[in-house]
Design brief:
single chain; mainly alpha; Rossmann fold; 3 domains
Length: 608
């Protein structure tokens, strides 16, 4: 599971990088993201393989292995460690192949490996009488087949050309790939942490009961696997609806959002209810699929299904709710729901109830965590649904064009990044008026709404704003979200207007998007906190306390957005040609000073 966490981080991160750069029409950079993802996966695979082989006994202790299980775990672990490179690289490539537009190939390579493993397991275990070692050999052989198929695909990439340069490790690209996949890593590692706690507590309290240590560890491991099947079905349904949620929410077609949510929740609850009935009525039949045991084994199996999965029906609400909030860009709510069950509720419940009630307390932690996660999900979901009102998607953005009595001898583009409340937008408007050139800000919103079908109000609320926890917002589904689509569309429009005419462009990472052009002047406008608060209270009619909070909030969102798409600090003055404190000269004089610099730049370009 630890290896899977790294493979998903690097595979999902590389696939997100691929999708983003392809959207920006930067195929070479996209190829570097893929290549760096593969190289990182290879490095991680070798390191984890070595660590497992060298420190296997210590790892077994960490994850609660008992003395009676140790021999089997060592036999299995030494062999399975050899297959770690095949597993990590193969799984990472699988995510990238999906992003390249070949989901059928990705599915086929996974299914072939799974079927092969299922066939070879009984052959090696029973026919060749190799026991757990046979199971390990069957697993790594199957992983090797999937690995070979996915490696073969590298030469068949549709969207990029993979050459030697693409595989040269570049720190900035590797860092970005890892950052884009961190949500998948955290989601997977949360299961690892829970498993470590559960195994150790099961061994401790199981030893104090008639069941012993081995039966609880073995049985609950099987029960968790079966519950993962249930959760995977629910995740599949909800993740398949994610693009529908995202687009219709952005287009303010809230009736369609509600209809899709109703269908997903209904299906998920029906499935989780069927699972609940099976868990409560035939637990002995379910556990027998995975083998048999003595009377204590069967008794604990029945207890585990009936107690640990008592409130599994709540998963039909909790899981789709997390995916729903992820789809509509509510990063904080999505992150809370993604981590609440495992980290916030289950681990404390295991520790507290285990200490109070022993082995039964450990089992009771499952429904406690499921119940609390269900309550939190229901509260957040109902609150969000109350705010959903059918929107008409009509234009609300202001058109920002100015006169075009151009006073510049050469074509020049002025980009203005600004702190909230600094007067930077007004300075940009003054510059455009004084130079007789176009002013672009909110009319980008109208154009993007026309191209994407998203509502202007939604675009205005979402663009240039990225929450701190947005990096945790891809736990279930990896790909371009609405924020990425908006950035790509805005980048295309910015390049288009910069190619056509002299203009002033406000925000939207325009300085970075146009960074390779010598006819661009990049400006950053800032101001003292007191003056920003004063300006915000006068212009936006906020009281002083609210103004201060809003300034901090908006600036933080803009900084996160800039960092995510440029890998640079938004307020780093080295990114800009001119950094000006609007309070030193005032907005009028600041605009005059910038206009003078622009005029000089125009003359200089004319002489080149």
């Amino acid at each position: 599971m630890i290896c899977l966490a790294f493979s998903l981080m690097l595979g999902d991160g590389a696939s997100s990088y691929l999708s983003l750069k392809l959207g920006e029409k930067k195929k070479e950079e996209a190829a570097k993201g893929v290549g760096n993802g593969i190289v990182l996966a290879t490095i991680a695979a070798i390191i984890l393989c070595a660590i497992t082989l060298i420190f296997l006994p210590q790892l077994l202790n960490l994850f609660g292995c008992t003395d009676n299980l140790r021999e089997y775990a060592m036999q299995y672990g030494k062999i399975i460690a050899i297959g770690i490179p095949f597993m990590i690289i193969g799984t990472a490539l699988n995510s990238i192949i999906r992003a390249d537009g070949s989901p059928k190939f990705a599915m086929a390579s996974m299914v072939i490996g799974a079927i092969l493993n299922t066939i070879l397991d009984p052959i090696f275990i029973f026919v060749f009488k190799m026991g757990v070692e046979g199971a390990a050999i069957a697993t790594i052989f199957s992983q090797f087949v999937t690995f070979v198929l996915n490696i073969w695909y590298i030469k068949k990439f549709k969207s990029v050309v993979m050459n030697k340069e693409a595989f040269q490790l570049k720190f900035s690209v590797a860092k970005k790939v890892s950052a884009l996949g961190i949500s998948s890593f955290i989601t997977q590692m949360s299961f690892v942490v829970v498993m470590a706690f559960e195994n150790n507590l099961l061994a401790k309290y199981g030893a104090q009961s008639k069941f012993g240590s081995e039966i609880p560890i073995t049985v609950l491991g099987i029960v968790m696997k079966i519950s993962q099947i249930l959760n995977s079905i629910i995740i599949g349904i909800a993740a398949g609806t994610q693009p529908i949620f995202g687009y219709n929410y952005g287009a303010r077609k809230f009736d369609r959002v509600k209809s899709a949510l109703k269908i997903v929740l209904s299906l998920s609850v029906v499935i989780s209810t069927i699972a609940f009935i099976l868990f409560q009525t035939i637990p002995d039949k379910l556990i027998s699929i995975f083998g048999s045991g003595d009377e204590n084994y069967m008794e604990f199996a029945c207890l585990s299904f009936r107690i640990y999965l008592l409130l599994c029906i709540g998963n039909g609400i909790q899981i789709p709710s997390g995916i729903f909030f992820q789809a509509i860009g509510k990063s904080i709510k999505s992150a809370i729901l993604s981590l609440s069950r495992q980290i916030l509720f289950l681990i404390p419940a295991l520790l507290i109830l285990g200490k109070l009630f022993g082995i039964m307390g450990v089992l009771s932690a499952g429904p406690v965590a499921d119940g609390l996660a269900f309550v939190v999900a229901s509260i957040l979901l109902l609150a969000e649904l109350k705010h959903l009102k059918q929107g008409n998607g009509k234009s609300q953005a202001l058109v920002d064009d100015t006169s075009t009595d151009n006073q510049l001898n050469k074509q020049i583009v002025i980009t203005i990044a600004r702190e909230y409340g600094s007067g930077g937008r007004y300075i940009g408007r003054l510059i455009a008026d004084k130079l007789g050139i176009k002013f672009y800000d909110k009319d980008f919103i109208a154009e993007i709404a026309k191209e994407t079908g998203l509502a202007e109000e939604y675009i205005e609320n979402q663009e240039q704003k990225r929450e701190t926890l947005a990096g945790l917002n891809n736990g279930y589904y990896v790909g371009l979200d609405n924020s990425d689509e908006l950035f790509i569309k805005e980048a295309e429009l910015i390049k288009k207007v910069a190619n056509k005419e002299s203009c002033v462009i406000i925000g939207r990472c325009a300085d970075f998007i146009l960074r390779d052009r010598n006819n661009v002047i990049k400006v950053f406008v800032y101001a003292n906190q007191e003056d920003k608060i004063k300006r915000a209270t006068e212009i936006y009619e906020l009281d002083k306390t609210k103004a201060e909070k809003e300034i901090k909030r908006i600036d933080k969102l803009r900084a996160n957005h800039y960092k995510h798409y440029t890998e640079k600090k938004w307020d780093d003055h080295s990114n800009y040609d001119i950094c000006i404190n609007s309070d030193t000269l005032g907005v009028e004089k600041s605009a005059d000073l910038i206009c003078e610099i622009v005029q000089n730049k125009s003359v200089m370009l004319e002489t080149i």
